[in-house]
Request: fold
Amino acid sequence: MKRNRRIKILATLGPSSNTEEMIEKLSNAGADAFRINMSHTSHEMLAELYNAIRNVEAKINHPIGILVDLQGPKLRVDMFKNGKEELKIGQTFKLDDNPEAGDNSRVYLPHPEILISVEVGHKLLLDDGRIMLEATHVENNVITTKVLNNCVISNRKGVSLPDTMLPVSAITPKDEADLEAALKLDIDYIAVSFVQRASDVDEVQAIVGGKAKVVAKIEKPAAVAAIDEIIAASDVIMVARGDLGVELPIQQLPGIQKLLTRKSRTAGVPVIVATQMLESMIESPMPTRAEVSDVATAVYEGADAVMLSAESAAGDYPIEAVQMMSDIAHEAEEDPHYKEIIYAHNTEAESTSADAISAAVYAVAATLNLSAIVCYTESGATAARVSRERPQNRILTLTPKATTARNLTLTWGVHSVVVEDAATESQMVEFACLTAYNHELATFGDHIVITAGVPYGRPGTTNMLRIAAVGKNGKCAD
Reply:
């Protein structure tokens, strides 16, 4: 399962891909981890998908990550007497707490937190931005707005609030139940939707208790404004461009994607770029030229992973979409200009022994043109530090913990293998040479650099660097 690319692929499962047979095909095509969207998944189906993925993992003998994406709060207007109404630019339209069916002048908004939070001048975007309103007066649980474009409003359309900070938790009672079900299954990643502030992530981290990595989905302007604090609270960042493109001027989206990617890389936090990357492949076996460039841009920026949504979940060509994304990524990484672009944003090592060792490993591997960097790690911290440097050399992670290997499936450049726990340095070096040889990351006569924490089994103590020669049949030649 050695990939010919460094960036990882996260594929969403759905009606087109929710069988064990399809999951295996998607994995073979290039999917490194799978996303399960709880907006469309029951607890029974969650358990079935989990078992299917773990069966495929055992079959291919390679770790597969599982990400459970919590639905988050869904904000919607209520019903209309006629099912829909036509609104004209400049007219007045009200959202209120009256549960009666709406008409051309008003509609019930069953979210008191919105009614008390919106201020004059705030924008309200409905139906994925197709309906644009601006608050002109707010009083007694009634938001009076001015309609900014000619449009049709209908039952149960979603509401986005780009200017408004809501006094609500990022997780709903449904999310709490879904989270409990996911943690019982030993899920690897939990994605939190509609994060507004770092405390939203902290709330989920407290519930998860270290049992999974917490992914903060950046979908709101408030999250972009608080991104430094959110990155510090998160294990992974997802640039969720769908809702970001609704709540922000869409022309700002490319710059924000670069900002979020670079800030995450600087912090050593994996970053996923998501939404509509190969959207046309839902119905077509080939992507558009613009989509190919979009995926390649994420690769050149040094994102850790790119994600497929409906393309793999509900599209007609899920396998082709994964294979195409893998091929685009490989081609971009082989571009002669790739190195100068991705290394233009390398960051300075922090003043810790672990960061100093990781920076030294990067320098040694590049200077001596070594075949692989081998990280022996219990927690995955060593591999994550090395990955942050974006080395040209392949990164091989050896860990005695399957959970650690799975937690690295969305980390750039890392190829993880579960091995026995090493008792001594010499045993660790033997494991490193033999595994690098068996996984075709090094051949007879090659040299590798090994980094680990001594004493073994103590997380966060990366303090050792060792160069070793690979002998015949993968045995250490030192």
